[in-house]
Every structure is written in C-alpha cells, then in structure tokens.
C-alpha cells in the first residue's frame, strides 16, 4: 500500500501477444462482436495455453494503445447517457485497460481464434483468463 498519496506507483507490464483482425481504427461498431479475431501469443507464452480448450469463453485483458487521454465524466457510447468513466466501457481511461469476454473457436500453436473481441488490429494483449460460468455468474443475490 502506498503510504504517501502524492507519490504515484508505476506498474510495468509486457504484452503476452497481439490482436490480428480487420479493425484498424478505434471506433464503436457493434458488428465487431460477431467477427473472428486472432490473438497471436508471443512464442515464449505458448505453453501457457495448455488445456485452454477446456473453456468455451475467455476473458481478454488488453491495452488501449491508440486511446489518448480521458475525461472523468462523459457520454456513454452504448446508451448516450452521461456517466463517470468507471460507469462506462470507454477506451479513454486513466489506465487504458480493456476487458472483453470472447468465444474461443480454436487454437493453433500460439494463435487463438476468438469471436467477439472488441480490440483493433495490433492491440497489445496483457492477459488471458478462463471464463467459468459457475463461479462468475451472480444469481439474484439479496442483502439483509
């Protein structure tokens, strides 16, 4: 924990791979959720894909490398409502991290073929995690 709030902690990450698809510009397009993309992992991470085919869906965490700057209050793209940045899926964020659930179609060596990735060609992929419906799904929870 940072004891001095005026000192900013730096975190360094390296991409595990990159996105390959036909989307070249960061524009909102619902069509992207039905398209197939490739995630090409760096060769040294290929062994990390062992048994990834046990899962139908994956979380993909990626870096919005072309999005510059952000506003804490803005208009959401999907419904036009004004909201805070943390109540939206805008790519213009303080840390530029994207998160999407994709359908895993198949794996060839170090390449994942996925459907529904809303990242543009060349986007750095930071991490891949399995989506496990039984542990992720929240059923009508109530609080007393």
Automatic annotation (TrEMBL):
CDD domains documented for this protein: UPF0066
InterPro entries for this protein: TrmO-like_N (IPR023370), YaeB-like (IPR040372), YaeB-like_sf (IPR036413), YaeB_N_sf (IPR036414)
TsaA-like domain sequence ranges: 13-140
Pfam family for this entry, one: TrmO_N
Keywords, in A-Z order: S-adenosyl-L-methionine
NCBIfam families: tRNA_TsaA
Family recorded in the similarity comment: Belongs to the tRNA methyltransferase O family.
Protein name, entry field: TsaA-like domain-containing protein
Source organism of this protein record: Methanosarcina barkeri 3
